[in-house]
């Protein structure tokens, strides 16, 4: 079964999400931005979600993780929790 590791930043609005994507594309530090902006408890670990398999995350997030390019910044990804900036750090 495929496995992936990812990190994310969860915010309430699409505008906040777009602003973070812009900051990251300009060289911003993912972990620092996650710890200061993410409303997910994972923000305190730099947004790290650890390793997981398909179907363990909500559908929209799951699709982005298992179909997106490893290392690329993705977002905004809208889920029932808010808007996510996502980076897949590893996939096997």
Topology, pairings included?
Blueprint: E1 4-11, H1 14-25, H2 30-37, E2 48-52, H3 59-67, E3 73-79, E4 82-91
Antiparallel strand pairs: 1-2, 1-4, 3-4
Salient structural properties:
single chain; 92 residues; alpha+beta; Chitinase A, domain 3; 4-stranded antiparallel sheet; globular
Descriptive overview:
The protein is α+β, with helices and mostly antiparallel strands. It has one domain (about 5-90): Chitinase A, domain 3 (Roll). Helices cover about 30% and strands about 35% of the residues. It has three helices and four strands; from the N terminus they run E-H-H-E-H-E-E. The chain has helices spanning about 15-25, 30-35, 60-65, and strands at about 5-10, 50, 75-80, 80-90. A four-stranded antiparallel sheet has the order 2-1-4-3, with helices on both faces. Strand 3 (about 75-80) and strand 4 form a beta hairpin.
Q: Please, how many helices?
A: 3
Overall outline: globular
Number of strands: 4
CATH class assignment: Alpha Beta
Low-confidence stretches: none
Q: What is the level-2 CATH architecture name? A: Roll
Helix content: 25-40%
Beta fraction: 25-35%
Can you list the strand order of the major beta sheet? 2-1-4-3
How many whole angstroms does the radius of gyration measure? Answer: 12 Å
Distance N terminus to C terminus? 9 Å
Structure described in brief:
This protein is an alpha+beta fold and 92 residues long.
């Amino acid at each position: 079964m495929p496995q992936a590791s990812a990190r994310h930043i969860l915010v309430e609005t699409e505008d906040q999400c777009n602003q973070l994507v812009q900051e990251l594309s300009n060289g911003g530090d993912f972990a620092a931005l996650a710890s200061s902006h993410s409303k997910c408890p994972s923000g305190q670990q730099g947004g790290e979600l650890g390793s997981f398999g398909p179907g363990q995350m909500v559908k929209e997030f799951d699709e982005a993780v298992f179909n997106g390019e490893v290392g690329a910044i993705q977002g905004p990804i809208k889920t029932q929790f808010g808007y996510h900036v996502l980076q897949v750090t590893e996939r096997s």
